[in-house]
Amino acid sequence: MVDPQLGQATIVYDDPNEGKIETVVDNEFIAYFDDHWLVKVGEDGNGNDVVRRIPKERVHYVERSVEQFQDKLDKLADEAQERLPF
Fold first, then answer.
1. b or e along 36-55 (b: 16 or more beta carbons within 10 Å of the residue's beta carbon)?
2. What is the CA radius of gyration of the chain?
3. Within its chain, how far is the Cα of 54 from the centroid?
4. In terms of Cα–Cα distance, which of 75, 61, 69, 52 is closest to 11?
5. CA atoms of 19 and 16, how far apart (whole Å)
6. What would the pLDDT profile of 48-67 be if each residue is shown by its tens digit?
7. Averaged pLDDT for residues 70-76
């Protein structure tokens, strides 16, 4: 279930086959890692997430509600610190 307070993100990027693409997803389904934007684009037949990796060089911009998203990131970081020995 998606938390409605997380807001949404819009990512605009170049696709090699389709040209310029604008995608809107819930904030929990987009992340930046290892010079790529990761965007959940669906699920496979087994219920596993299908994630598109978009190189940062192809992205025009990403817009999202940072305050609400930052709260979620802070919560995730706190949970990770509790679980992992740092």
1. bbebeeeeeeeeeeeebebe
2. 14
3. 11
4. 61
5. 6
6. 999 999 999 999 999 987 66
7. 74
